[in-house]
Write a structure and sequence with these properties.
By secondary structure, this protein is of the alpha+beta class. The protein has helices at 26-39, 49-57, 63-75, 94-110, 133-145, 165-170, 190-197, 200-219, 228-243, 260-285; strands at 46-48, 79-84, 87-92, 120-126, 149-152, 155-159, 177-183, 288-289.
């Protein structure tokens, strides 16, 4: 399984049409839970399964779905178990921590709008045997997460200087890939190239849907709600779904009034309002233990 597929559906597509908003899978919500309340804490605790069932139940995930998701994630090397008496606790593995730190960088540090593009592009060309369907899927998934789009079938591009070599090496595909860093010639219409390479309408629709949904939540008084932990869990999960296919294209080459900026402002407003209440609720609700050494 390619690492970043764990943050979305297996084929990299949303669970529902963008006009309806995403319906995050239990595994995506599970990782958002651990990112919110383990990674952002001391990062090294295990959480009682009953606590996890309680929290995910607040966003519509039933007990059986939680238990089966925990089992699958253990089997995939994403979570580790620790038994204490009759209770079972779950913590992050190094693999899951790496993916969550990557997601944390995308969410909190990079921002959704690229105002400081330096004019460079990273180009990646590859040629894989026809029988390597899984390797091709894994590479394309990793490239999409890293901001690449398919200029041609075997030539992908991303804005800026993207360090993709380590990810390619992890997939065992170094010998089949060539990476370049370059600038476009003046004869190249960059805006046309962007429109041909990325689904701008689809990316924009995700931002518009997110902004509409969470602006309504703000209007209903999100700060005074009685379930900040559930609200924040859904907020982060939906925001990650929203930005997943956005390569942070150069703002000056995007359509006027690109919706990423207002959507991100809405995200940060709700995040700020729910941060402290969610931490307090988690402190009262979550039963945790240190991991075994």
């Amino acid at each position: 399984m390619e690492d970043h597929d764990i943050l979305d559906t297996p084929d990299g597509t949303p669970d529902s049409d963008a006009s309806d908003g995403p319906q995050p899978r239990p595994q995506s919500l599970m990782l958002a839970f651990f990112g919110n309340h383990v990674l952002e804490g001391d990062g090294d605790v295990c959480v009682y399964s009953g606590s996890i069932i309680d929290v995910l139940g607040r966003v519509g995930v039933g007990e059986q779905a939680v238990r089966s998701t925990l089992t699958r994630m253990v089997n995939r090397g994403l979570l580790r178990r620790r038994r204490e008496g009759r209770k079972m606790y779950f913590g992050l593995t190094p693999q899951a921590s790496r993916v969550l730190w990557d997601g944390r960088t995308r969410i909190w540090k990079q921002g959704a709008v690229n105002d400081d593009w330096d004019g460079t592009w990273t180009l990646l060309g590859f040629s894989l045997p026809d029988s390597w369907k899984r390797q091709r899927h894994d590479l394309r998934s990793r490239l999409t997460w890293s901001g690449f789009g398919a200029l041609y079938s075997g030539l992908w591009i991303a804005p800026g200087n993207v360090d993709i070599a380590a990810a390619v090496a992890e997939l065992g595909l170094t010998d089949h890939v060539k990476i370049f860093h370059a600038r476009a010639d003046v004869a190249t219409d960059i805006e046309l190239m962007i429109r041909d390479t990325w689904d701008l309408e689809g990316i924009a629709a995700r931002y518009v849907t997110f902004d509409k949904r969470w602006t309504a939540v703000l209007g209903s008084g999100v700060g005074s709600g009685d379930d900040p932990i559930g609200t924040r869990l859904r907020l982060v999960s939906e925001w990650l779904w929203t930005i997943r296919t956005d390569p942070r294209l150069p703002a000056r080459h995007l359509p006027p009034e690109w919706p990423a900026r207002p959507a991100e402002e809405t995200f940060r407003r709700v995040a700020e309002l729910t941060a402290a209440p969610a931490r307090r609720t988690a402190g009262e609700l979550l039963d945790t233990v240190p991991p075994l050494r």
